[in-house]
Automatic annotation (TrEMBL):
PANTHER family associated with the record: BLL1074 PROTEIN, HTH-TYPE TRANSCRIPTIONAL ACTIVATOR RHAS-RELATED
Stored InterPro entries: AraC_XylS_family_regulators, HTH_AraC, HTH_AraC-typ_CS
Protein name: Helix-turn-helix domain-containing protein
Classification lineage: Bacteria, Bacillati, Actinomycetota, Actinomycetes, Kitasatosporales
Statement: the UniProt record of this protein carries the keyword Chloroplast: no
Family matches, as SMART domains: HTH_ARAC
Keywords for the protein's UniProt record, in alphabetical order: DNA-binding, Transcription, Transcription regulation
Gene3D superfamilies per record: Homeodomain-like (1.10.10.60)
Organism of derivation: Streptomyces hyaluromycini
A Pfam family per the record: HTH_18
Length: 263
């Protein structure tokens, strides 16, 4: 059985650094295969396994989907870091974590090691108040507010929204008064992937979430693709199957808590 705790409201003190918080526990082996979607986010996961092992892990961006069996007897808290937070907390650019799972106490950032010491022995389902006390003090003096604001404006412009398709990379650079190279450097450091690859991941995740809610050509237009063929090619490249096949065999999505391998 999976117990999904109500999604806690992210405390005000964490909102400059954390985009989303989730707590979950899994008491029985989940049945069947799960899909882990491509994800441009970096997460910090506090996890306790059935045998009592406690991990505080950095889970880097994933550029392609993965398919796997879920795990049982796990409790976890997942902090999805806001763009631009990875270096300040973890001591490395987000690009250095792509496709990786790393214990926080193995990272070079002193803030990461201190954070791991503070939260390792907490119950993941009750850890949020302590995290909200500890994390801001570790980060407040380590981030560049102007650079972070610029990055987050770029992320917002390149993300799919219900009322508009995402902007093009060159238009975003022009709007933010930076060169495309500067924008790429911002994304590589603060998100982990280039602006173009971020936009691809975000579009594919949106197609996976909205499949069946509209016709394929309509969905392609709404998510910023040139046409349905372009959407199908991009989706297959990141998901391993075309949209129609994915939708027919629609697999439940999983979380880093269930799927990360022991580092």
């Amino acid at each position: 059985m999976t117990i999904a705790e109500p999604l806690p409201t992210t405390p005000e003190a964490l909102r400059p650094w954390v985009a989303e918080v989730r707590t979950m526990s899994f008491t029985d082996p989940p049945e069947g295969t799960f899909v882990q979607l491509p994800d441009a986010g970096t997460k910090v996961v506090l996890r306790v396994t059935g045998d009592g092992r406690r991990d505080v892990l950095a889970v880097g961006p994933r550029v392609r989907a993965a398919y796997h069996e879920g795990k049982a007897h796990i409790a976890c808290a997942e902090l999805r870091l806001a763009p631009g937070t990875a270096r300040a907390l973890l001591g490395v650019p987000a690009a250095g974590l792509v496709g990786r799972v790393v214990p926080l106490d193995a990272l070079p950032g002193g803030a990461a090691r201190r954070f791991a010491r503070e939260v390792r022995w907490l119950d993941p389902r009750e850890a949020l108040p302590r995290i909200a006390e500890v994390l801001p003090g570790l980060l407040a003096e380590q981030a560049d507010p102007a650079r972070t604001a610029l990055l987050r404006a770029g992320v917002a412009a390149l993300s799919v929204r219900m009322d508009r398709a995402p902007a093009q990379v060159q238009d975003v650079a022009r709007e933010l008064a930076v060169s495309e190279r500067q924008l790429r450097n911002l994304f590589t450091d603060g998100v982990g992937v280039s602006p173009k690859h971020y936009a691809r991941i975000d579009r594919v995740r949106t197609v996976a979430a909205r499949a069946g809610s509209a016709g394929w050509s309509e969905l392609a237009a709404a998510t910023g693709y040139f046409d349905q063929s372009h959407m199908t090619t991009d989706f297959r490249a990141l998901m391993g199957v075309p949209p129609r096949s994915y939708f027919r065999g629609r697999l439940p999505a999983t979380t880093p808590c269930q799927s990360i391998r022991q580092p």
